[in-house]
Protein 1
Amino acid sequence: MSTVYFASARVSKWKYDESMPGKLERLLKEVDLSKYFEKNEWAAVKTHFGSEGAHRIVRPIFLRKVVDALKTAGTKPFITDTVRIKGLDYLEIANQNGINHLSVGAPVVLADGLYGNDNIMVKAGDILGEIATASLIYDVPAMVVCSHVKGHINAGYAGAIKNIAMGGVSGSHRHCGWKCGRGSMHTIGEGDLVWDSEQCALCRQCEEVCPLDCISFKDDKFSYTNERCWRCGRCARVCPEGSLHLPEDVDVFMKSLSEAAKAVLGTFKPNKVIYVNFLTEIQPECDCMPAADVPVIQDIGILISDDIVAVEQASIDMLLKAVPLPASLAEDEKIKQGEDILLGLHHKNYIIQVEEAERLGLGKREYELIELQ
């Protein structure tokens, strides 16, 4: 049985040790990073930089606490993510969202290069075959995965598995394109965008949201560059009229996330990756979107484990006990107390990704929860 450490977001005393940064410091001491990481060893701190307008990411103060703990353990940390928009633009977004070397106390770098095609093909499994793992994550010997737990239009639930699966893999490969990158998970290597001209209001939100400038309208007709498209689905997500559709198989997609996560984690030796799940500002959508809605669940706290399956199951168990917040999308969808909030928002059987991760040997769903006192 794996151990999951937990610190509540509630404050019982007005003192620094009871603050969330203070509790994170205490949690990291409890875990004892020196058991996992060696002195002078490089360690990646994998997080999500967010987007312009999507600010509900793991806050820089928390990343700083992780960096400081790694430095205390004698390692040499850096903050990283894979390219989601043009590389230089993405670094500027990170800076706008407060993630820079001054705020986090470590270099901030892109794991797959400025162009997002610096990657290494890794065997993944029956669904994906091979997948383009970011070269920096492939090469680095140790990693702390800092995940913002939230809803997700495709995954239903997004935590550590999604962070590693989508965030440890490039959007595209230099030779085989998106079919070897994270796009192969979105559509399992197939599927083209379908446009319904009769429903389209020509608002062009799809054109604005595309991270690769693939979409254009000529003579009021939709077109996109099929060879360059990552199949991220943002265009279909923002279409207010439902005139764009990207085909998907939800069950296979969930399993492919776990398969990709296993491929990425397989580049590390045992006991070289720690998972920190932040159950804060739990909004309904991914941090890669151009806006962040209000949270649908109140802040719960921080979970840490060396078992990705256990930390995900513990996170989900806490979300299932949560009360939907008023004046949020949860209220709009008429989700009531006692109901699965994320399932009610996205209608995706998200637990499949956790079950599949356990089946693939990434960890165990059974866990012991130790709460910080």
Note: The first helix runs from residue 20 to 31.
Protein 2
Amino acid sequence: MEKYTYRPVRFYVTVFALTWGWWLLALLFRDTSVMFLFMAIGLFMPAVTAIVTVLTSKNKMLKEDLKRKIVGFYRIKPLSIVKAVLLFLVCVVVSIGISVLFGGSPEQFSFTEDFSFSIAGTSALLTMVLASIIEEVGWRGYGEDAVGSYHTWFRESIIFGCIWACWHLPLFLIPGTYHYTLKEMGALYVINFLVSAIPVDFLQTWVYVKNNRSMLATAVFHLFLNVMQEKINISPETKCIETVVMLVAAAIVVAANKELFFDKSHIGNLLEVQYRSDESEKK
């Protein structure tokens, strides 16, 4: 099969231009019925860009890889997803515990009655489900591989974590979003959100690579993170503690999976390595 060369700069310039364009348009139509429509269109842009990039590539291996990432259930290793979920829960519990030790409310160990945001009156849960699935199609469909094909997964996690954080920036300006609520609370909470994207992406990368680059696996984990961050009654101050705890957890995951994060065998031939792995799994 013909070798494919990933083009990360072209992909991310396109994604940012399209996403930010629609979200800034939504800002112009704030408090109107079309704002949510423009928000949703912007959310779809990474996925649309990834799919169009793959389908117009004329590369059979790249197209087959996208298909297998979506429907290749044989790639999934359920235990690795469970481990990641449990690790995240431990991080939350430890963070709340530290908060309580320093005077935080013990009620943080409970669940919230409702979600903290709603966009144009739509269901926050539905928004998070769609966001988790749609984002993964874009990021894991092409975006993460576009960076990972040139770097170790350790460096890729840092680079993509920064890109992913910056992608959210316009949301801090749009009323009704979770990000807008953070901005209203103060700069510290905005910075905390942006920084937290890096350790979270280390966990996402761990799930992604451990599951043979399965999009389904990362979508499940992404949704779990989003829902738990909303339903656990954790305070904004404790979320700052949580970021530090997550950084420690990410460091532990890297130390325990050095071969995964520092392996260089996939650099320059990511699709070929995955193709051989898939063929081996199916036998």
Note: The chain has twelve helices and no strands.
Protein 3
Amino acid sequence: MTASQTRARTDRGGARQTSTWTSAGGGRPPATGRVLTYALLVALSILVLAPVVWAALSSFKTQTELAQRPPALLPHSLSTANYSGALQSFHFTTYLKNSVLVTVGATVLTLAINTMAAYGLAKYNFRGRNFLFLVTLGTIMIPLQIILIPVYQVAASLHLVNSLWGLIIPPAATPTGVFLLRQYMLGLPDDLIEAARIDGAGEFRIFLRVIVPLCGAPIAVLTIFSVIWRWNDFLWPLIISQDQDKYTLPVALAQFNSELVVPFNYILAMSVVSMLPVVIIFLVLQRHIVRGIANTGLR
């Protein structure tokens, strides 16, 4: 075989290999339904992300730029004057500390209470278990505005008003978390629990060493939900906090709107900063969301 024939065969093989690896569906064009689905998903993603991108870009604009009509998409300069000015005229560190303490404390307490409640409702047989679970689910349909006064009275009787504990403890137990974890735990084999009992493990040790490690996906989902709920909560912190040193970020940002001249540039800057923790946590734990919810729905 001559060199030219070898080179030609190599070129034809390389061409076939390239077409196989670069073509979609083995050389066939993608189906019309798939193209429409991807186009719809891209359009919805742009629709959802557009306000976030606009807020992030507008956080660098001055008051004059924000008042322009029609508004400009890009700022004239990426100056951090809005962020530094907001930090000077806005007790951001205090409000950020309160939000972090409330979010972390309420999330840890939510995970502890909901996990134990779901374990009891899923793996223990006692009279009235199903009725108690239905009552727990029924509380999902009760909005906070209806039970706001009784909950506030209970918090006041426990001396939780105007304290961070008053922001952490009352909203800790969530029926949504109990439902997600219970449905997942129903699929866990009872043989594991029985084997642990035969080996001499106590109930609390079984819960910590056997059940909790197996519920990583739904616990991650509940963690994301709890962080989003607590970090963005506005109504309950507004009512329970009476001093500014107990305000969280959403309440403090709303206070900015009550000023005579509303500093929209500072509000946008602090809003972007307040969004960052939730976005970071979501990006870190996003792979658990679909798996956790899908596995919960199968049980």
Note: The domain at 90-297 is CATH 1.10.3720.10 (MetI-like fold).
